[in-house]
Amino acid sequence: MLETIPAAERAAVAPRSRSRLSRAAPFVAAVLASLALWIAPAFLDTFAVNVLTRSMIYAVLAVTVDLLWGFAGILTFGQAAFFGVGAYAAAMILGAYGATPVGIAAALATAVAAPALLGLVVGWLSFYHRSTPLYASVISLVVPIVVTQLIYSGGEWTGSSSGLVGFDVLPFEIEGYFRLAALVLVAVTLAAWILVQSDAGRALVALKDNEARCAYLGLNPRRLQILLTTALAAVAGLAGFLFANASGVVAPENAGFLFGTELVIWVALGGRGTLLGPVIGTIAIDYLAANLSGDLPFLWQLLLGTAFVAIIILLPGGLADPVGRLWRALPVGRTGQAAPALAAREAGSATSTAEAPILKVQGLAKSYGSLTVLEGIDLEIRAGELVSLVGPNGAGKTTLMRCLSDGTEPFRGAIAIGGTPTTGLTPNRIVGLGVGRKFQVASVFESLSVADCLRLARASHDGLSPLSQAPTLGLPQAALDVLRMTGLDRLLTRPTRLLSHGQKQALELAMVVALEPRLILLDEPTAGLTKAERTTIGSVLKALTAGGRIAAVLVEHDLDFVREISSRIVVLHQGRLVLDGTVDEVVGSELVRTIYSGGAHA
């Protein structure tokens, strides 16, 4: 049930008619571009039509590289391999069955399916748990080399080093291939634009910004990365199908590492993360290279390399960067992002009882080599409790929080959330058990707006549309209270990078609360805040647990702050739980004073 609440930031929103015009502009531009490209062959010579057909097919590949690298932050050299597999699959089937309706359908299906299957394997190898972006890039370097070697060793099947030629192709004239490539390019670019403007597209940017926070919001970064790799491998295979038909020749270099590197360079020169920049850059560079290779056969690569170095130094954002700045400086380019309407979403029913602990820790021990960080930790947390975990630096508090929120951490003992053991569970699966974690340093998405961050926090409950952005932001009442108490409800369209330290801390807390967790883990949530901000955060935490549905575990050094908000205090010292009691018992304890003065020894 949603109760709509007026958005606070109305004055900064562009007029509704301008917003509609802004949304419709890409579709109008796509139609106009299609019409212009449809009639373009009438004004171009045969050489230009041939080269530009190839260039537009390459531009389709550039869009896939830009989505992976420019938006999702995955530097890849492997799109050439998927392109080559698609081209060879089409050539081999068309050579065997001819350009009959069945042969064409089979060639198209195989040219898309084979790279998609390869992309699924590559994605799984690249993004298994705890892999790094560098590892994924290395895999993408290796794949084109392996595919090329398989082509060389394929004998008559692949034509070895000579490639395949003479197979039947689609019954089009040269102008027909130009128009087909143009329509596919416009369609792929428009689809990519729709994706990056949607809620799902914001998730791609979030992956690039802060993959760990995505996992701690219940998203599965590995699954998203694998799905993206698989889908874009299929698009690369479609481009390979077009190339095989338009050129009538496929060769090993079409799947090679050098071609994959060229794609990355074209995207960088055009401006990664802009879509149109890589498209225009790829077409311009490939067309110029085709002309210069004839006029300056020994110098054109040197000229291209020099231009690449100059642009990277002078325009790190590519050629699209100054164009984008100029566009945003114009009145029509300053339409702004519409602030979503906030809505209170009815929270799910509580599943825990006062008798059953939400969190149960038994015999927890954690070591790094010969260094024991935690040992013999036994702890129970029940609904409605606000438990402060205190202790001097090096006591093992943050390590304990990490073990509670990440079951893949190697530890001994047992941890259960609502009776479910967490051993071996990744952070996103533990979030699914009802755990939200706030980090010591605010972990948000710097490239996104406040509203986008909150939408991603709701993704595990509401999903993410790949087609649009929801006009209403539905949040639990507790999250709305956090926004209102901290003033963030008036800053929904503000980029997160422009928020103050305190505002980022409040935003992260609102994101965690938006998960509707049963247990919230907070690692020094008031670090670096002013007294007023600390008071606000304290009020928020007390309000969250007062209803008896949510429990909170708070790591904190400030005993005065702890005394004001806690229902219970646990003292950790040298990896051991040395005291667990009420606020008065712990704060007045001689043991606590001794520990903080540095006189206690475990």
UniProtKB/TrEMBL annotation:
Pfam families: ABC_tran, BPD_transp_2. Its main location: membrane. InterPro entries: AAA+_ATPase, ABC_AA/LPS_Transport, ABC_transp_permease, ABC_transporter-like_ATP-bd, ABC_transporter-like_CS, LivM-like, P-loop_NTPase. Gene3D superfamilies: P-loop containing nucleotide triphosphate hydrolases. It is a multi-pass membrane protein. The keyword Transmembrane helix applies. Keywords: ATP-binding, Cell membrane, Membrane, Nucleotide-binding, Transmembrane, Transmembrane helix, Transport. Residues 359-599 form the ABC transporter domain. It is found in: Cell membrane. The keyword Coiled coil does not apply. The chain crosses the membrane at residues 24-44, 56-75, 80-98, 104-127, 134-152, 177-196, 226-244, 264-289, 298-319. It comes from the Bacteria. SMART domains: AAA (SM00382). Belongs to the ABC transporter superfamily. This is Branched-chain amino acid transport system permease protein.
